[in-house]
Amino acid sequence: MQHEEGISTVRQDDVLKAPFWINRNFALLATGQVISNIGDFVYSMTLMVWVFSLTKSAGAVSGVLLAQYVPMFMLGPLAGVFVDRWNRRTVMLVADAVRTLIALLPLLAPNELRLPAIYVSVFLITSFGRFFMPAKSGVLQAIVSGKELMQASSISQTLSAGALIIGPALSAPLYFSVGPLAALVVNAASYLVSALCIFFIRAPRAALHPYAEREGEASGISVRSVLGELGAGLKFVVSSRVLLALIVMILVAMLGAGALNALDVVFVSKNLHAAPALYGLLNSVVGVGMLVGTLLAALLARRISATQLLTGSMFLLGVGIFIYALQTWYVIALVLAFFMFMPQGGLQVGFGPLFMRSTPPEMMGRAQAMLDVSSSGASLISIGAAGYLGQYLPISWIFSGSALLIVLAGLYGWFALRERRTVPQVAS
């Protein structure tokens, strides 16, 4: 794998030497994404509380997450093929424009159809997101050089953690003072702002649309050609030691994380004995911990490899979640959440550079899709199991099992992603 051999050529000393915002294009992309992320967190937190308030059912809450993960599993592979064929910037613009309208769909439904409308809205938003996310990875690869990927990942994760602080903190006050209308409007507006930022990104056409440069825009689309490109992407991922190890690691971790996402609001209510309105505050504290963890990860990235940062963060996150699962007092859980979820800040800082340095631009869409399919498939299993087991088992048991899976993912990644060292041959 010639492309992989270049992974270790980027020195840690190169990290963070560029200006903070790296360049104008990255500043636009990062700004649009942090605003979009704030809207997403306001929207998702509101939906979880809204659905739980309407139904008082863990199964109904799990349904929201199922509506998120099913499109990832169904559309991921095909979306990757077409993202590699199309102009990535155009894909992002169209996806954001359509999601601006879809976010308002639940407001148009009558009361008796409100829950199905929520599920449909989440399903469609996530469906267009399947095209947006690999396209974003391709654009990021086009506007940021290889030695600046660690810095870009650090900035992106820092902004994401900031969005996690702001979004949930806004969601509960908006929901209980104004109602769900505010969250839906905020999310729609955030997609619109993201689209405007993407519109002003400028990059060489060949970087944004590598397929057109390689094959010519006149190339037709047929079932055979799509399946052929899908097979080529799968073959590339399976033959890549780094990408395959990353996918297996994320798959195992998401078998645990899906249950956490599905039952967290129920855990706050039943185990921590807190009102649903306090769910957003807990997530904001998690966001503060992630922000501090991301800043620490950016400093550690100068001294340790991306592999060590990723796998160590995964292991410590699993340990933290295990401790969190045993809590019964909201205030103690609130304090512990800050420390226990700090390692989450290091995950993307370590993951992003490993993934992008291992993937050539013309394969980015399909490689991202394979990753999404693996993680979403594992999440679907985890969410379905959580929704069922939550009716019979204590949630603390389910969370503890999830934490152990995340610990195992970190241990697996530690050994599977170790750099192979060649033994010099001694001349006879």
TrEMBL record:
The keyword Thylakoid does not apply. Keywords: Cell membrane, Membrane, Transmembrane, Transmembrane helix, Transport. Its main location: membrane. It is a multi-pass membrane protein. It comes from the Bacteria. Residues 25-421 form the Major facilitator superfamily (MFS) profile domain. SUPFAM superfamilies: MFS general substrate transporter. It comes from Dictyobacter halimunensis. The keyword Chloroplast does not apply. This is MFS transporter. It is found in: Cell membrane. The chain crosses the membrane at residues 26-52, 58-83, 115-133, 154-175, 181-201, 242-260, 280-301, 308-326, 395-415.
